[in-house]
Design a protein that fits this description.
single chain, 416 residues, alpha+beta, nine-stranded mixed sheet, four-stranded antiparallel sheet, elongated
Length: 416
């Protein structure tokens, strides 16, 4: 396997300009982006990406989930491609870099290889996976989940948004539903670059995060049922207050995670209170619990502790509490060889780096099930993400893209 020379680096200004140009599509209201999946803005961003890919001599493939695959040929027609990419869709109030950096860094790798007339034995394919965020159509990482065989295609097409619109219908409406079977492609390896979405790299003063594992995730929907009564005329001792149940469940979730530090995270996310009137004691609350850990046994323990504690709270407060799972994926261990390629790349380039566990879900977490996979991360200011104020520096972007390029090119094998 031929390693790239240490002086092989991307065009950092071109990468940054591409990030800023893509950010003009679906601008947010506070400096970020609102380019949600399969919206008109998503379609416009896809079209720009396709134009850039075609200008770089890539051929575009499109599957039935709308995932885009831009291919640079290798010298060996029988060699499986090395894939690199992430996603272009954003949160409703998202930043300019989450996902986008990984896609456009993949494109910049190809542009740089073209500039230097570097050939590789394996083809290189830059991927833009549909609906990674999962905000408009749950669950997240939807297209990569279908690709990896976790979800059925028809089921994914039938996911609905808050207005009752279906993912498949919207994908077709914006003109980005392909005819390629999802998951038919075989990969030699897959690499994803992403911003950290946390503060560790910046705090530690490291240029690069080498992602060895991904947190497992367990989403639980909790329905707390009490009895609606007038707040002004119901004695305190006679109340069956679902809101009070929510308060105690919130503290319970926090305590469960704190008891398992440093390998556990937990929080209440979405909350709906009914009837949500200022003078009525809440009769029903529906909330979501988000538990995460890189240890599958810890994940199991946390859910069991929640169910046990919720049953006690229900008894004490005269409530009914029901818990159902609404999302789950097991902890991820990324491929050792791919991780080592990223680590060698950072060493070769002289960048400071550290091992890190990804706290968020990414397309790489699903692709890891069907191909050797690894992730590299760059710092983000104050660890802020899923926020229009999300920010990285051009230097961070360039260094992480360089590490990505070296790992991809080493794996794809330089010819000549």
């Amino acid at each position: 396997m031929t390693s790239p020379a240490a002086n092989l680096t991307i065009n950092s200004e071109r990468l940054w300009d591409s990030l800023m140009e893509m950010a003009k599509i679906g601008p947010g209201i506070a400096g970020g982006n609102n380019r949600q999946t399969v919206t008109d803005e998503d379609g416009e961003g896809r079209a720009l990406f396709q134009r850039w890919c075609e200008a770089a001599g890539l051929t575009m493939g499109l599957d039935k989930m709308g995932t885009m695959f831009a291919r640079r040929e290798g010298t060996d027609p029988d060699a499986l491609p090395v894939y690199v990419g992430s996603h272009l869709d954003t949160q409703p109030t998202g930043g300019k870099y989450d996902g986008v950096l990984g896609v456009l860094a993949g494109l910049e790798i190809v542009r740089t290889l073209n500039d230097l007339d570097v050939k590789t034995r394996h083809p290189i394919v830059v991927a833009n996976f549909s609906n990674e965020e999962g905000t408009r159509f749950a669950p997240p990482m939807l297209a990569s989940g279908v690709f990896a065989g976790l979800h059925d295609l028809e089921w994914a097409w039938d996911r609905t948004d808050a207005k009752g619109l279906k993912f498949g219908d919207e994908l077709r409406r914006i003109g980005w539903m392909g005819d390629e079977e999802v998951g038919a492609r075989k990969m030699h390896a897959f690499f994803e670059l992403h911003i950290e979405q946390g503060p560790i790299l910046e705090i530690e003063g490291k240029d690069i995060g080498i992602v060895t594992h991904g947190q497992g995730l367990n989403w639980l929907q909790v329905t707390i049922t009490g009895r609606e009564r007038h707040t002004g005329s119901t004695p305190m001792a006679m109340r069956q207050n679902a809101g009070r149940g929510l308060a105690q469940i919130t503290e319970l979730v926090h305590d469960i995670a704190m008891a398992r530090q440093p390998v556990a995270l937990g929080a209440i996310g979405q909350i709906d209170v009914y009837p949500n009137s200022r003078n009525i004691i809440p009769g029903r609350v529906v909330c979501t619990v988000d538990f995460r850990s890189p240890d599958a046994d810890i994940q199991t323990e946390m859910e069991a502790a929640l169910r046990e504690g919720a049953a006690r709270i229900a008894r004490d407060l005269g409530l009914t509490i029901e818990i159902e799972q609404s999302g789950h994926f097991d902890p991820v261990k990324f491929d050792d060889a791919c991780v080592d390629a990223l680590r060698r790349a950072a060493d070769r380039l002289g960048y400071s780096h550290m091992n890190i566990i990804s706290g968020a879900g990414h397309d790489a977490c699903w692709i890891n099930r069907v191909a050797p996979t690894a992730m590299v991360m760059c710092p983000c200011v104050d660890g802020l993400s899923h926020n229009e104020a999300e920010e990285i520096t051009p230097d961070w972007a360039a260094k992480s893209a360089n590490v990505l390029m070296h790992a991809v090119v080493e794996t794809a094998q330089i010819v000549g």
